[in-house]
Write a structure and sequence with these properties.
Distance between the termini: 64 Å
Shape: flat
Number of strands: 0
Oligomer: single chain
Largest sheet: none
Radius of gyration: 21 Å
């Protein structure tokens, strides 16, 4: 009658399906451990990005 499922016509169902897929993906990846090398690399990237943001803000404030 409606010509098939159209996610634009039913955004609520689309959101529910998306959240279910994401939940299943999180469950599937939950058992995988992150190595110390990957964890350290992530921390280094976070510190560098934070430093860049602080540097840019300092340039605008004091430059």
């Amino acid at each position: 009658m409606w010509g098939g499922f159209n996610s634009f016509r039913d955004p609520t169902r689309n959101a529910v399906l998306t959240s279910r897929f994401m939940e299943e993906d999180l469950k599937r990846n939950a058992g995988q451990n992150i190595s110390n090398r990957e964890r350290m690399a992530a921390y280094v990237v976070i510190v560098l990005l934070t430093g860049m943001i602080c540097g840019i803000l300092a340039l605008f404030k004091f430059g």
